[in-house]
């Protein structure tokens, strides 16, 4: 039996017009008007903000430097890889040291690069995971595993699973929103879960002249006309649904009602001009390097505060096969201030306590260099993909703050302590939301599926 089928009734069919509402009113107006699915046990977190660093950030340059590699910079290493593994551009296996110092930060002494000065100021609020691991060295399957738990299948994304398991805190907003998403819809899709659980795409790339959500503006002369148009279409949809019962049609009916409500309430919510200039500056909005990600992170906070259950923010560009010494500072400059501002802002508003923030790429990067030309000086080399070990961090939602968990070997290749696989990350995330990952299932083509497949262990060592 699917877990808690009543969740598809979270979106009622009544129209609700609220006019212009302040952000603080949006949650009040949209909650407690529908029956929410119940968690399996008392949760520590109510919502998730997932910050996806697409491309694979270099853990060695940011969080996990290795003295052995630093001492051997530019010298050949003994390869730990099987001879059958093809590593383009790494035939010489030259040690690539970290050019920017990684120092202890905060009272906890968390290792962090000088490239992350803003994040360093909130080190005592985050939990650094140094023993992450995944199963595939290629971007697409590794990204798919991070988002869906599967390497090569069409499965529901973790945002869809969480929406299915808990519903939305605000009936006027989707339970899952993805900001600046990857083009692959599988990363935020619902697959065979009801369509209402798929992620709503939001573009945070521009100012007020760029609609953040497609068709958000109501083109009807007024709201009453729009309501009549929707009612007409819904009558046709209901008639078709009665003649040819189909869960997908029911999902479309509910999605259309939600879209109508969003046209009334969401424009106010995504209008960042309502925030103070101080807040906008803190996030880096208006900055040359930080504007796009600053807008995305501030929107993530506003959406979470208003009751969106799962907000995903994609920040790409971390795939540094060449000139990592030149490219990594640029990416850090684009992401460090907005991300740190998000953590700080959530804490100041009392939201971090029950909001789980996750920062993670699909894998990490090798301690040896990569030179695709075969002849370039080592100062211009990059790093190859490394799923065997990498770093992520979490904050809020019952996660131990100022805590470093896990370790890798002297080479920075294998996890030797505190290993957390992607399945374990998913199990832990669901656990903090009050969901047992082994019970959150959906029966599809004759078998029960879940986000963690048949794997996953909750990392209780990092919980408060």
Automatic annotation (TrEMBL):
Region (Disordered) location: 200-219
Gene3D superfamilies: Alkaline Phosphatase, subunit A
InterPro entries named in the record: Alkaline_phosphatase_core_sf, DUF1501
A Pfam match: DUF1501
Name of the protein this chain belongs to: Sulfatase
Organism this protein belongs to: Planctomyces bekefii
Record lineage: Bacteria, Pseudomonadati, Planctomycetota, Planctomycetia, Planctomycetales
